[in-house]
Design brief:
The complex is a heterodimer of chains A (about 375) and B (about 400). With about 375 residues, chain A is α+β, with helices and mostly antiparallel strands. Chain A contains eight helices and 16 strands. Chain B is mostly beta strands and about 400 residues long. Chain B has a domain of about 260 residues. Chain B is about 10% helix and about 40% strand. In chain B, about 55% of the residues are buried. Classes of the chains: A alpha+beta (about 375), B mainly beta (about 400).
Chain lengths: ~375, ~400
């Protein structure tokens, strides 16, 4: 049998390899430069989604607001709030959700809903001039957007201009000096922190995936004053076609400062859920501490009773345990809530101030705790 | 004809390869916070963020969440990231991505930890200094280098000074090398905690409260600390008064501790120079020595398979402090032996395999802490090394690719 020419074999192999590489490159390029699916999803509403899921440079391009300064949403954009919100230094927060036509989220009680690709969650932060009378005027500072792409949630932060007409994308965040008249008539000054996109992931993360924190069934299960009348949010989302699988007996986390919605213990745990459990939970950014402050955590050792900290450093003050039942001033948890020092204070971000009213609640709660059996 | 055609195909292949990685250079200046943070956000895998020589001043923590990025300065005494004016955020720098290299810069005076890396697969700190420039103070941040929940951790040629918990710390991680580094004036110089597989070698730990700690703590996602080699280190003169805030477990480390092993399995300690640690040169303990209750049923508080051999150990225990002074002196006398074992053995275990051999003139005591804690008079202290003759198979060296 005649043997093949060696050179000819090498050339053929090389040709086949090159062709294979060229073909894979061509295929990859096609998919990377694919025309934007998002445009198709957004076509029917006024709201627009950006090409290739790359956040717009100006927030006006999304078309989320009919009146940005007053935070009136555009058609199809639904405002919402939570039974107990995250404390953000007494700022005013506006939350909005929009989903593409025909798309809906799937209800979950204790975790964030499963949202469809194309969802926009927006949250605007601002300050009213006088907390005693919000109608006196307000300034909006920034809007954060979570956008659900096929690859997962994309975060972006927009800073509003002085005219309050538009906001610019700013990945590095920033600082803004704000001043307002407080509930007690005093003047407050704050160097407000606008987060950078990494800081978003500092809280909005479970395992390796970015996740919304607010829109969970148990936090949304309340009445909202829509422009056409008050209604339960879970039911409104369902009737707008934004939510499926809402159970009849959906749970609700109480309103932390409304005694009609829960016991002191329930309201304290509600506050800790919303202000702490995004980090202090399994797979959260503080999972390495073992401290689990989720509302549904029933084991007292897990939520801090008799628990020694791992790496609190000087955050422990000179206290020994996270929670000592009956002894708030021996409890590290309260020590950290009362602090404004970086390295000690909890949560680490976003707050710069102490939430005095909540500290009172937590103090009273620990005072009333009994040693577990 | 054939050759040209082949060349064309090869050229097409080369053109199709991704654009090469870039270097983003930033010099110190008024806008450092925004410039450096923006660079860390916009960096792409393979990029280098190059920081120039000088002082960079930051008021908020920096963060990196992009895989495969190198942050490179001009030298640990030349490129200084100062967090003296930090008013928000806990750390100096927090890293949450994989395959990250930090090299040739310093982080000073952060309010919390200097550099934290969480969940990083592949994290290298090369020639990095972390320091609180006011010296040991309770108000200093807790950790200098703080990789936690990481794999393939390489700490090489680093310096850690005045952390109020541990200078160089690795926690809840796997596959770790800490080498050629220096830890001084920290509470714990070098600490390996709740981790699996670590080589700690050719380091100097001096003037800390405790030189090198190998711990396992309960109630954490990762437990069962094991497979640690501590060798060719100089653990000398650890004499800084414990300045950890009281709530911390490290606050219980007696001033003048050389090497402390607590609740770990398979630890090999050899060829170290362990001198002049005024409480105890080497202590082998269970978690019970902390005095804290164990509420975690899945936790093993005992130290077993501990092989201490061929170390140069001397001159320890001359000026005991803390619990060593209050409890151990009553059991063994004013001069504390160089090597102490707390003698606490798990029920049903005949031989915990604590082997102590060939350590020159180093003396030893089993202080029977189990009995001593409830009634020191009932403790059966023994100084006999005969039960501790033996050996264990040498542990395998840790391998980190590219290191």
């Amino acid at each position: 049998m005649r043997s093949r020419n060696q050179q000819g074999v090498t050339n053929s192999l090389l040709a086949m390899m090159s062709a294979a590489v060229l073909l894979s490159v061509a295929v990859a390029t096609y998919f990377l430069a694919a025309p934007s699916m998002p445009m198709a999803l957004a076509a029917e509403a006024g709201v627009q989604l950006p090409d290739n899921w790359k956040p717009f440079k100006q927030i006006s391009e999304y078309g989320l607001f009919a009146d940005p300064a007053a935070q009136v949403p555009a058609e199809g954009v639904l405002p919402y709030d939570l039974t107990t919100p995250l404390f953000s230094d007494y700022s005013t927060k506006y939350r909005f959700v929009w989903m593409p036509e025909g798309e809906a989220a799937t209800y979950k009680g204790e975790e964030s809903f499963v949202f469809p690709v194309g969802t926009l969650l927006a949250k605007t932060f601002g300050y009213v001039d006088d907390l005693r009378d919000p109608s006196l005027g307000q300034t909006i500072i920034e809007t954060r957007i979570l956008m659900k792409s096929p690859e997962g949630w994309v975060v972006s932060v927009y800073i509003w201009n002085e005219d309050q007409t538009d906001a610019k994308l700013k990945v590095a965040g920033g600082r803004r000096d704000v001043t307002w008249t407080h509930t007690d008539g005093s003047t407050k000054n704050l160097s407000y922190i606008i987060p950078n996109v990494n800081q978003c992931k500092g809280c909005h993360i479970v395992g390796e995936a970015i996740k919304p924190v607010g829109p969970k069934g148990m936090l949304l299960n309340k009445s909202y004053p829509y422009h056409d009348g008050a209604a339960n949010q879970l039911q409104r989302w369902a009737s707008e076609g934004y939510l499926t699988d809402v159970p009849d007996d959906a749970p609700a986390v109480p309103v932390w400062d409304d005694p009609e919605t829960g016991t002191e213990a329930e309201r304290a745990r509600a506050y800790l859920e919303v202000n702490c459990a995004h980090c202090h939970r399994p797979e959260g950014p503080a999972n390495t501490t073992g401290l689990d402050l989720r509302y549904g955590q029933e084991d007292p050792y897990a939520w801090g009773v008799g628990r020694t900290p791992v790496a609190a450093g000087r955050g422990a003050g000179d206290r020994l345990f996270d929670i000592v039942p009956g002894k708030p001033d021996e409890s590290i948890l309260l020590f950290r809530l009362e602090s404004t020092e970086p390295g000690i204070m909890m949560p680490e971000l976003p707050r710069l101030m102490v939430h005095e009213e909540a500290v009172e609640l937590i103090r009273a709660w620990i005072e009333g705790l009994e040693e577990p059996a | 004809m054939q050759k040209r055609w082949v060349a064309l195909c090869l050229a097409a292949v080369l053109v199709a390869l991704p654009a090469s990685a870039k270097t983003i250079t930033i010099e110190p200046g008024d806008n450092a916070q925004e410039e450096v943070q923006e660079a860390l956000i916009l960096a792409e895998p393979g990029d280098v963020v190059a920081l120039g020589a000088g002082h960079f001043d930051f008021t908020v923590s920096l963060s990196l969440d992009v895989d495969g990025v190198t942050i490179r300065g001009k030298g640990m005494d030349k490129t200084i990231l100062s967090f003296k004016n930090q008013d928000a955020g806990a750390e100096g720098l927090i890293i949450t991505s994989d395959a990250v290299v930090c090299e040739d810069f310093a982080v000073e005076d952060s309010k919390g930890d200097a550099i934290k890396a969480k969940g990083s697969d592949g994290i290298s700190f090369l020639r990095i200094r972390t320091e609180w420039t006011g010296g040991p103070k309770e108000t200093n941040g807790a950790y200098g280098l703080y990789p936690v929940e990481c794999t393939d951790v390489l700490i090489d040629g680093c310096v850690a000074i005045a952390a109020s918990d541990a200078g160089i710390y690795v926690g809840q991680s796997e596959n770790i090398i800490v080498r050629n580094s220096r830890a001084e004036y920290n509470v714990a110089g070098i600490e390996i905690e709740n981790s699996w597989g670590a080589d700690v070698y050719d380091n100097v730990a001096t003037h800390n409260t405790g030189g090198i700690l190998v711990f396992d703590l309960p109630g954490l996602p990762k437990q069962g600390g094991k497979d640690v080699r501590v060798f060719r280190n100089e653990i000398i003169n650890n004499d800084t008064k414990n300045f950890a805030p009281e709530g911390n477990i490290v606050g219980g480390v007696p001033t003048g501790t050389g090497l402390q092993i607590m609740a770990n399995r398979n630890v090999e300690v050899f060829d170290n120079k362990i001198h002049d640690n005024s409480s105890i040169n080497i202590s082998i303990l269970s978690y019970f020595s902390s005095g804290r209750p164990v509420k975690d049923e899945s936790y093993n508080p005992h130290s077993t398979k501990i092989h201490i051999h061929d170390n140069d150990v001397k001159n320890g225990g001359n000026d005991p402090k803390g619990i060593v002074k209050t409890l151990v002196v009553g059991l063994v006398g004013e001069k504390i032996p160089d090597i102490i074992w707390d003698g606490i053995v798990q029920e049903g275990v005949d031989n915990p395999e604590i082997y102590i051999v060939n350590n020159g003139d180093a003396d030893f005591a089993n202080i029977d802490l189990g009995r001593a804690m409830s009634d020191p008079k009932a403790a059966r202290v023994t100084r006999d090394l005969a039960p501790h003759k033996g050996s264990l198979p040498p542990l395998k060296p840790i391998v980190i690719e590219g290191s």
